């Protein structure tokens, strides 16, 4: 939506987000340490690692343990969900990643595959393995890749897309909108016939120490942490803050607001009214108990966050 910036006023939006006393420590579920240990144990069989991350946060929230523990093979970073990301600064993102030592990067869209990005993976990985001269298992002619990443970034979707593209076969890996769908560790799945290529699917593993609360909020906004651990109210507020900071005002039109606004309570109230999400609450008044209709703020927050994750509020780049 086009909104005249002069009409907004420079002081209309917050310039920083108040995180309060929030702690990120409890966002790391214990079973993830176990997953990482199992991945490390399987490394011997692996020729190349495909790390998947969300294209909306190319620098934030990648698990440093992947580099420390698993980075002994050729490594391809796949920035998935590019259909939801503002990639207008793609080249400066790639340059920055290269400065950080990440040389092999591919942007993908596993759902619609409009630009054939998934097709590029097998040739690229084959080249990377050949350049690394496959220092182990020279006699074995098949390739084994390991797909890693934080939860909900599209690991299973990528595996299914590779199978569709290269084998014309259907789903082998379960996909879900919530983090933590893949629980079985290291299932071996064929993704290509020539060359013969297998993939090990892995469960999403968050960094045990998220570097700061802002990184944690970006991970939460992208759906990599279960919403209830963070709180949908604060995710919705951080979303509003981010959309305004990026001047992405699609929410104004979608929810028929009068204009951009930085007050989450007001925005949620408008969303609840527009969607007819109200709840009856009892109120004690001078004339006794009465039931009144109130906007359902939780339902509105849920809708706001879901709309963002489906791309209905515009493409964003949360890093940089
Ligand atoms: N818009 C968009 N959505 C995607 C893309 N790839 C995956 N998704 C969606 O993201 C959600 C998570 O996908 P999964 O493939 O289950 O992710 P995962 O990394 O295997 O998840 P875990 O099992 O939790 O680790 C699902 O709702 C997918 O439909 C993409 O390229 N674009």
UniProtKB/TrEMBL annotation:
Pfam families: MMR_HSR1 (PF01926). Residues 36-208 form the CP-type G domain. GO terms for biological process: mitochondrial translation. Keywords: GTP-binding, Membrane, Mitochondrion, Mitochondrion inner membrane, Nucleotide-binding, Transit peptide. Gene3D superfamilies: 1.10.1580.10, P-loop containing nucleotide triphosphate hydrolases. GO terms for cellular component: mitochondrial inner membrane. InterPro entries: G_CP_dom (IPR030378), GTP-bd (IPR006073), GTP-bd_ortho_bundle_sf (IPR023179), GTPase_MTG1 (IPR016478), P-loop_NTPase (IPR027417). The keyword Transit peptide applies. GTP binds at residues 80-83, 152-157, 204. SUPFAM superfamilies: P-loop containing nucleoside triphosphate hydrolases. It is a peripheral membrane protein. It is found in: Mitochondrion inner membrane. GO terms for molecular function: GTP binding; GTPase activity. Its main location: mitochondrion. PROSITE patterns: G_CP. The keyword GTP-binding applies. Belongs to the TRAFAC class YlqF/YawG GTPase family. MTG1 subfamily. Plays a role in the regulation of the mitochondrial ribosome assembly and of translational activity. Displays mitochondrial GTPase activity. This is Mitochondrial GTPase 1. It comes from Pygocentrus nattereri. The lineage of its organism: Eukaryota, Metazoa, Chordata, Craniata, Vertebrata.
